[in-house]
Write a structure and sequence with these properties.
Order of helices and strands: HHHHHHHHHHHH
Largest sheet: none
Shape: elongated
């Protein structure tokens, strides 16, 4: 059962990745063709750079394409201005003079790019501006202008294609990424609570935890892309911050529960808490999986009531154990883990309540967008 769920999840993810990859391949191909045709029609010196730039800026989502275009354009313009300026203002002749000029161009720009990787294109551009005139006996200023024009054609072509050809919005991708992460958290949570009464399958748990870390990194990157789209008014939707912060807090809850359940409960507590913990696990896992389904579909509401009922039953049983004095007999470290578990479950309940609000906001926004799109189709 534990192995079947990650397998189904991997197949679903692979299918989604295949769709995104095919769409990206189409966009990249179209961008390269259009960039080459445009550069040739404009009579640019090196259409190659227009094509290469279009490949660089055509990314998986519109938000990522925006960032790539901005970074590449800033780097190109800065490198062209700097390279053209030193080529004109500093007299040089022969191989030795060109070598000294090359050092003067590369060293400071490489240092700046190390501090700000978004300006990596500046170093390459400055080198091209310096060396192309030396090889073709062209004017340095003309070389700088050609470079900016070539990159501009490629950048704007790639960006336009990202908008028009099978566009992929990060705002829609974030729902899918969040759903996948919630399913991984649910699987980890189920394994951890089961470990309190039967021990843990550490190999399976480590695989899940590794997947959670990678998925969280990807979700944060997608969230940044979605915010760029919203800031540029290229897409609409709720603020990504609350959803990302809530999922991060749920991740922390799972980590804390993992620390509290590093060893099984004493036998007498297991007998009393096995059923309440099983109910808590089923309720929370079922709730997170249902939220994941709703987020992925962009519709639906999920009842958090069963989570409340299960946690209240668990709290009542814990109160009964404390009243009977069974908790006082626990060793210090075991008692500390036991109370840490209760605190973590309380925190998780609060974060699940926040997740419930986030899911409602995102599904409502997705439904409104679908209604608007349908209305536009009917009008046309």
């Amino acid at each position: 059962m534990m192995m079947a769920f990650p397998t189904r999840l991997f197949r679903r993810l692979r299918s989604r990745k295949t769709q995104l990859a095919l769409a990206l391949a189409v966009r990249v191909t179209v961008a390269a063709i259009v960039a080459y045709a445009t550069a040739t029609a404009l009579g640019l010196l090196l259409p190659l750079w227009a094509v290469l730039t279009s490949l660089i800026v055509t990314q998986m989502s519109v938000g990522r394409s925006l960032k790539a275009t901005r970074d590449y354009m800033f780097g190109t313009i800065g490198g062209a201005l700097y390279g053209g300026a030193i080529a004109v203002l500093i007299p040089h002749s022969g191989e030795g003079g060109l070598l000294a000029l090359l050092v003067l161009a590369v060293a400071p720009l490489a240092f700046i790019a190390a501090l700000n990787p978004s300006l990596n294109a500046a170093t390459v551009t400055a080198v091209i501006v310096l060396l192309v005139p030396a090889m073709s006996h062209a004017d340095p200023l003309g070389s700088a202008l050609d470079r900016v024009m070539e990159v501009s054609v490629g950048a704007f072509t790639g960006l336009l294609v990202s908008f028009l050809v099978l566009p992929s919005r990060a705002v829609s991708q974030i729902r899918v990424s969040a759903a996948m992460l919630l399913e991984l958290l649910a699987a980890a949570f189920a394994e951890l609570l089961a470990g309190l009464t039967r021990g843990q399958d550490n190999d399976a748990l480590h695989r899940i935890q590794d997947g959670i870390g990678a998925a969280l990194t990807g979700l944060n990157a997608t969230g940044a892309e979605a915010e760029r789209e919203r800031a540029a008014h290229l897409s609409s939707g709720p603020d990504t911050g609350p959803l990302l912060r809530t999922i991060l807090r749920l991740r922390h809850d799972v980590v804390m529960i993992g620390r509290a359940s590093v060893v099984p409960l004493p036998a007498d507590l297991q007998a009393r808490l096995a059923l309440p913990l099983s109910d808590v696990s089923k309720a929370i896992v079922g709730y997170m999986q249902s939220v994941a389904v709703a987020l992925r579909a962009g519709a639906g509401s999920v009842d958090i009531g069963p989570v409340d009922v299960a946690l209240q039953s668990y709290a009542a049983e814990v109160a009964s154990l404390r009243h009977e004095g069974l908790i006082r007999g626990l060793p210090g470290d075991a008692a500390e883990r036991f109370f840490a578990l209760g605190f973590s479950l309380d925190q998780m309940r609060q974060n699940l309540n926040d997740l419930n609000r986030c899911q409602a906001d995102w599904c409502q926004a997705a439904l409104a967008k679908a209604i608007d799109a349908k209305a536009e189709r009917l009008q046309s």
